[in-house]
Amino acid sequence: MSRRVMIRRLEASGALATGYLSSLLFFSSFKYIRIFSSKFISIPQIYEFRDSNPKMATARVDLDGNAIKPITICMIGAGGFIGSHLCEYLMEETAHRVLAVDVYNDKIKHLLEPTSQWGDRIQFHRLNIKNDSRLEGLIRMAHLTINLAAICTPADYNTRPLDTIYSNFIDALPVVKYCSENNKRLIHFSTCEIYGKTIGAFLPKDSPLRQDPNYFLLKEDESPCIFGPIEKQRWSYACAKQLIERLIYAEGAENGLEFTIVRPFNWIGPRMDFIPGIDGPSEGVPRVLACFSNNLLRREPLKLVDGGQSQRTFVYIKDAIEAVILMIENPARANGHIFNVGNPNNEVTVRQLAEMMTQVYAKVSGESSLDTPTVDVSSKEFYGEGYDDSDKRIPDMTIINKQLGWNPKTSLFDLLESTLTYQHRTYAEAVKKATSKPVAS
Fold it and tell me: NAD-dependent epimerase/dehydratase domain: from which residue to which, for each copy (predicted)?
């Protein structure tokens, strides 16, 4: 029986699920083999495809024991750090399909190769969401949209505030609009920066209340969002992210948009950001881990902004991706919720992070540690005018643990070892060539 005839018969039965029909139409290169069923049902009990992942043969269930149906996901920002890891997991561990949307695909090229076993389940669409009419069509084709697109490097917040606001608020508006108008579920990536400064930051330096972690604990449904003055343009990012969160929440309340908001707390791992002058701009300033990696690769002292006294928590990208998968596959538990995704057990000052990275890099590279491992610089010198910061960010994990049962597993040492091993293997030779002085003839 031809695939077209099969679809018509299933449609005529009135029992064909929309999701299954779209999977047949979208992946037209698959060869249909068989459906085992004594009658037409909404979801085929068994179906097999050419070149399918062997792991798909085992039925996967959600947290409530229900069978997980393969869906199509429109992933905006699929070519970035988080997107590339999420695409990998979806291809390797699930039967879901991905419409990968981005302006670059360098970090997911290995998934897009014609010889890849996942080539029929992932399509790359090169477009910029702020000026491309194709976006709505892609969102309509999918069951779920995940929006990862953002400007999210602190150096840009006060040096490129307009771009930061446009990227994180204005450019995200069509995504929210199309999802709401077309009744499509949305998982939107926000930021832990949404919280701004902690209540504890306003306590006197000698106050005993500073020893109480509750003044620094950040809760999705309770903590206020406290930003600095307008002239401190570093808060342009957090403010734009807060406003798009409020818009999404309002769309849910007034128009029934099914949404989940993710607030990442410093996700760390391979492929994060770039190394200036190697696979990014020479004058660029990536986030702290990539900054320190760049210093280590070049055997330069690690630069500590304002002494590196700010405290942060770090979570391994692979742990964090597992949390996102739970959100994708458990919509009944995730819809309408905002989730902190971090690891409160991996809390250190930025200075302590620099010291740990220096030790770990010496181990994985076999190189001796620097005589002067760190150097203090002012935030004005490093980031420019208008920089401000929060002193401490600790995620409360109550909601995500209750709704999805998720807890991070990887220690700070282990995630640094994995990441720095990748950084050394990927960049060491390129940096050495870029920094070597030409030999005089």
Answer: 73-342
Query: Please, which residues have CB within 8 angstroms of residue 13's CB and are 6 or more apart in sequence?
Result: 40
Report yes or no: 242 and 195 within 8 Å, Cβ to Cβ.
Answer: no
pLDDT at 94: 96
- List Cα–Cα distances, 311 to 41, 111, 201, 393, in angstroms: 54, 36, 12, 7
Residue entry with tokens 């670059």? 104
Task: Return d(Cα 98, Cα 91) in angstroms, integer.
Answer: 9
Going from the C-alpha of 40 to that of each of 24, 26, 43, the distances in angstroms are: 16, 21, 9
Q: Could you give the residue numbers annotated as active site?
A: 237
**Full domain range(s) for residue 19:** 1-50
Please report the pLDDT score of residue 185 as a whole number: 99
d(CA 278, CA 406): 36
Average pLDDT of every residue of the chain: 84
The answer for residues whose C-beta is within 8 angstroms of residue 439's C-beta and 6 or more apart is: none
Alpha helices in 78-232 (DSSP H): 81-93, 109-112, 134-141, 154-159, 161-168, 173-181
Q: 339-384: per-residue pLDDT in tens?
A: 999 999 999 999 999 999 999 999 999 988 777 789 998 888 887 7
Q: How many domains does the chain have?
A: 1
Show the low-confidence residues of the chain (pLDDT under 70): 1-58, 277, 279-286, 437-441
Say what the alpha-carbon torsion angle 212, 263, 83, 322 is, to the nearest 10 degrees: 70
Phi-psi region of 299 (alpha: psi -120 to 50; beta: other; left: phi over 0): left
**Within-domain flag for 417:** no
pLDDT of residue 350: 94
For residue 12, being part of any structural domain is answered with: yes
Instruction: Give the predicted TM-score (pTM) of the model.
Output: 0.84
